[in-house]
């Protein structure tokens, strides 16, 4: 990917994010996570030079390789993929800024146990399957608040910072919007319990997600395209 494409892609996304967030409020700040899972460390570097600072990966091994290759850059690394229990220790050792994909109480308990053993803490979001899609991970909306509170109570080494959702995988805009609204409503309930991030919106639907209250978007294909 060349520098020109990186700058153009980033500018286009920032312009759209600005438009969408200002329609809510000038105080509504949206953080952009560049999802580099289909891209090389070189591409990440090019986007870093264009001004992007936060990147996300969905495989522990890829996160390890890219973050180690780019160790000299002050990049904020996020983990956004399904976390297998046998990869927990590897992920902890990479000190990610935020894990978006804590998708069950069971996984939280296991993660907490391994964090305790290493005497470390880790920031995470609870993933909610707000579209009720069988192919997606996450807790069901009706259980989310209760599970969030249980994690706070039972997992002192996990610093819960909010929620994450993937929008409904359909064409109908109303269905996608409803899935985002479901997550936003849960987020609002969790703000008194310390929730700060409502991570939702990808390349195809981030403007809709921001209109529904997202304050953190995860864009891959639209940022890394040639
Ligand atoms: C791949 C991925 C994204 C980015 O998707 P694009 O459509 O390429 O923007 C965002 N979130 C998660 C969890 C992903 O796996």
> Architecture, CATH level 2?
Alpha-Beta Barrel
Strand content: 15-25%
- Estimated helix fraction: 40-55%
CATH class: Alpha Beta
How many discrete domains? 1
Q: Give the helix/strand class.
A: alpha/beta
CATH superfamily: Alanine racemase
According to CATH, the fold-level topology is: TIM Barrel
Mean of residue pLDDT values: 97
Compute the separation of the termini in Å.
6 Å
Poorly predicted sequence stretches spanning 5 or more consecutive residues = none
Q: Any ligands, ions or cofactors bound here, and which?
A: pyridoxal-5'-phosphate
Question: Strands of the biggest beta sheet: in what spatial order?
Answer: 7-6-5-4-3-2-1-8
**How many β strands by DSSP?**
8
Rounded radius of gyration (Å) = 17 Å
Order of helices and strands: HEHEHEHEHEHEHEHEH
Query: Can you tell me the overall shape?
Result: globular
The total count of helices amounts to 9
Major β-sheet annotation: 8 strands, parallel
Keywords: Pyridoxal phosphate
Protein name: Pyridoxal phosphate homeostasis protein
Domain Alanine racemase N-terminal: 43-224
Function: Pyridoxal 5'-phosphate (PLP)-binding protein, which is involved in PLP homeostasis.
How would you explain this protein's 3D organization?
The structure is a single chain. It is built from nine helices and eight strands. It is an alpha/beta fold. The protein has a single domain, classed as Alpha-Beta Barrel (TIM Barrel), CATH 3.20.20.10. An eight-stranded parallel sheet has the order 7-6-5-4-3-2-1-8. Helix 2 (41-50) links the parallel strand 1 and strand 2. Helix 1 (3-22) packs across helix 2. The radius of gyration is 17 Å and the shape is globular. The mean pLDDT is 97. The site of pyridoxal-5'-phosphate has 13 residues, from strand 8 and helix 9. InterPro entries: Ala_racemase_N, PLP-binding_barrel, PyrdxlP_homeostasis. Its cofactor is pyridoxal 5'-phosphate. It comes from Arcobacter venerupis. Residues 43-224 form the Alanine racemase N-terminal domain.
């Amino acid at each position: 990917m060349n520098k020109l494409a990186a700058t153009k892609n980033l500018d286009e996304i920032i312009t759209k994010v600005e438009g969408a967030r200002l329609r809510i409020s000038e105080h509504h700040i949206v953080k952009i996570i560049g999802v580099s899972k289909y891209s090389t460390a070189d591409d990440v570097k090019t986007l870093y030079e264009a001004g992007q600072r936060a990147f996300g990966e969905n495989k522990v091994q890829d996160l390890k390789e890219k973050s180690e290759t780019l160790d000299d850059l002050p990049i904020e690394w996020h983990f956004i993929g399904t976390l297998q229990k046998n990869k927990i220790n590897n992920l902890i050792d990479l000190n990610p800024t935020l894990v978006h994909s804590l998708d069950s109480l069971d996984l939280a308990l296991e993660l907490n146990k391994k964090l305790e053993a290493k005497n470390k803490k880790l920031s995470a979001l609870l993933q909610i399957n707000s579209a009720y899609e069988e192919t997606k991970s996450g807790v069901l909306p009706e259980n989310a608040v209760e599970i969030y509170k249980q994690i706070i109570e039972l997992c002192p080494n996990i610093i819960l910072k909010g929620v994450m959702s993937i929008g409904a995988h359909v064409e109908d805009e109303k269905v996608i919007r409803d899935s985002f609204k479901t997550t936003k409503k849960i987020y609002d309930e969790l703000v008194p319990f310390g929730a700060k991030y409502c991570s939702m919106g990808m390349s195809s639907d981030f403007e809709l997600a921001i209109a529904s209250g997202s304050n953190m978007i995860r864009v891959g294909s639209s940022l890394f395209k040639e």
